[in-house]
Design brief:
alpha+beta; Glutamine Phosphoribosylpyrophosphate, subunit 1, domain 1; Rossmann fold; 3 domains; 6-stranded antiparallel β-sheet; 27 helices; 17 strands; globular
Length: 634
């Protein structure tokens, strides 16, 4: 696991001095504290920071082919590299100098060019410089586990694992994108391929780009990412027993592949069904005493799940580690969490995830997790609201507005996923179509609520752009037979890709910890997407087929308990501990000088929340995290 960076001069001109690449590498040192490697070749520079996981002695990067004409910097893990290596060795055309998965990519590229991506099963982002062909080849894994940012500015292509490294290049300009600000307010993150900065992009999952220096200037100065893989839904009617057996076979194989490591590994255990599935499979593959499980608990009971994690740990007799967090612990770590985020990020669960990663890293270097189970199997609460919303949208709008008025009479609670919060959120976004509605439920400021928040100038600058066009573009991208498949696709392409996986990558790598996700194995994903939608959400049972598959392996109450998630008591924080910070950040003079948000509207959000008239935790946290980011980068 590593961090990578580099740059290329599109006119074969001189590149900045080596100190620039050194600074870029240093900015992502947390991703790879064990080693650093750099490569310079007239108008190309590649850099890499390494967290040693496989072939500790021989995996130094950049890594080359036999005649040093191809160089690679690589971030990630290729789980099927032993099989690929055996296949390449049979050709008799390649000499392997190391036992690392990185070298396998180099020789596979020699054989199959960009089609090498089709053979790779893993999480990755890499850059290959092919000296003979004079071209740069950059790619990212199918589901988006590992990040890659890039830009073309002033005849330079610059790329890096994190924005904080990329913006250190002297030719890169930092200019706030108001379109991306609008997207952030709507989603609580900036969906790919955009970033919060103008002209800087994320390479989307399942995509690659090639810069061919032998092409005319007009062609090579424009990066056009190409898609090599996407999620497809091809439902097949089969007996349930056959489906569950095939899923368990593939999932067990995915877990086994992720146990390959030359360093200690463990597993994040929340006590929910997804992480419990991972532990159950690990217990079938290795002695239980060798399984290290990690969980965190909260002193606030409505947020705490540790009792369930302990139950699973006791059931499988794992070597269990637990840390109970007090509210002040979460608050104390907040500045460090904000400092590690390159873009504004409005998911408050980033704080406990950061602390879980730090706690886990004290004992192991690699951890498995349950990410992806909720998206693939329709596991989130908004999926339960989908069918009731379909009936409700048939009612006249005056009736819906009357229901909203009744819901506003419910007393406001600060508890995690409280009844009043769920009801009000459900009724609030009925004007949107089914795909947009889910993200209006999840987000803070859907398009119709941005006008009173933004200043006239900022609103005019974003008015030509509807942030929810991202949703519509994704729905046009794939053929679907049922709306539920469309929603699952959206959750994978937006919430999973740009929230969950970003959160886990940044928090784990900030603590030099690698996290692996068996649910996101390509063979698991492709099989799950052949399962009919009514076996994922069956009536009001989410993850139906997953629960059927695990019924002989996990306790019934673990399988069927309601999802809680990594909640954080921000509603209470804003009324007490964070109130002075909030008031300082949102001073009228500061907001006027910034010129983005209406001071009176922001003050109204705070006053409502402080007085307990309305729960504005999501809106205030989204603005709070933007302002903390803005202080650092703008």
């Amino acid at each position: 696991m590593c961090g990578i960076c580099g740059y290329l001069h599109l006119n074969r001109g001189g590149i900045p001095p080596p100190e620039v690449l050194e600074r870029m590498c240093l900015a992502i040192r947390h991703r790879g504290p064990d080693d650093q490697g750099v490569f310079f070749d007239s108008y190309v520079a590649l850099g890499q920071r390494r967290l040693s996981i496989i072939d500790l002695a021989g995996g130094h990067q950049p890594l080359f082919n036999e005649d040093d004409s191809i160089a690679i910097v690589f971030n990630g893990e290729i789980y099927n590299f032993p099989d690929i290596k055996a296949r390449l060795e049979k050709t008799g055309r390649h000499v392997f100098k190391t036992h690392s998965d990185t070298e396998v990519i180099v020789h596979l590229y020699e054989e199959e060019d960009v089609d090498c991506l089709k053979s790779l099963n893993g999480m990755f982002a890499f850059a290959i410089w092919d000296k003979k062909q004079e071209r740069l080849f950059c790619a990212r894994d199918r589901m988006g586990k590992k990040p890659l940012y890039y830009t073309v500015m002033n005849k330079h292509i610059v790329f890096a694992s994190e924005l904080k490294a990329l913006i250190l290049h002297p030719e890169v300009r930092r200019s706030l994108s108001l379109e991306s600000l609008s997207k952030y307010l709507a989603f609580e993150y900036v969906p790919a391929p955009a970033t919060i900065f103008e002209g800087i992009f994320k390479l989307e999952p399942g995509h690659y780009f090639v810069v061919d220096m032998k092409q005319p200037w007009a062609i090579r100065q424009e990066i056009i990412p190409r898609q090599y893989w996407d999620i497809e839904f091809k439902p097949v009617q089969r007996p349930i027993q056959e489906i569950t057996e095939e899923f368990l076979r593939r999932f067990k194989e995915a877990v086994q592949l992720r146990l390959i490591s030359d360093v200690p590994l463990g597993v994040f255990l929340s006590g929910g069904i997804d992480s419990s599935c991972v532990v159950a499979m690990m217990a079938e593959l290795m002695p239980s005493k060798d399984i290290k499980t990690f969980s965190i608990g909260f002193t606030e009971k409505s947020f705490d799940e540790s009792i369930y994690a302990r139950r699973i740990a006791n059931l499988f007799q794992t070597d269990h580690y637990e840390e109970v967090l007090k509210p002040e612990t979460l608050l104390d770590i907040l500045p460090e969490v904000c400092d590690n985020l390159d873009e504004p990020f409005g998911d408050p669960s980033v704080i406990p995830t950061f602390l879980l990663s730090r706690f886990t890293r004290k004992h192991v270097t690699v951890a498995l997790g349950g990410d992806g189970g909720d998206e693939l199997f329709a596991g989130y609460d908004p999926f339960l609201a989908h069918y009731p919303a379909k009936y409700l949208e048939k009612l006249p709008m005056p009736v819906i507005k009357a229901l909203r008025s009744v819901a506003r009479l419910l007393p406001v609670s600060s508890r995690n996923i409280s009844f009043d919060f769920v009801v009000k959120q459900f009724l609030s976004e009925m004007e949107y179509h089914y795909g947009q509605r889910h993200f209006a439920w999840l987000g803070s400021f859907p398009p119709d609520r941005q006008r009173p928040l933004l200043t006239p100038d900022a609103y005019v600058a974003t008015n030509s752009h509807n942030p929810f066009c991202v949703i519509d573009n994704y729905l046009r991208q794939i053929p679907i037979q049922h709306e539920l498949d469309g929603i699952i696709y959206l959750y994978c392409k937006l919430y999973l890709q740009d929230d969950i996986l970003v959160k886990v990558d940044r928090t784990s790598m900030a603590n030099s910890l690698e996290v692996r996700a068996p649910f996101l194995d390509v063979n698991v994903v492709e099989f799950v997407n052949t399962i009919p939608h009514n076996l994922k959400l069956r009536g009001f049972t989410t993850k139906y087929i997953l629960k059927r598959a695990m019924q002989s392996k996990l306790p019934r109450d673990i399988i069927h308990r309601r999802k809680k998630g990594f909640g954080v008591p921000i509603a209470e924080w804003f009324k007490h501990d964070l109130k002075p910070v909030l008031l300082d950040l949102f001073q009228e003079s500061k907001l006027k000088q910034q010129g983005l948000f209406q001071p009176a509207y922001v003050r109204g959000l705070m006053d409502e929340h402080f007085a307990g008239r309305k729960d504005n935790r999501k809106q205030l946290w989204t603005l709070f995290m933007f302002e903390k980011w803005y202080e650092k980068y703008c």
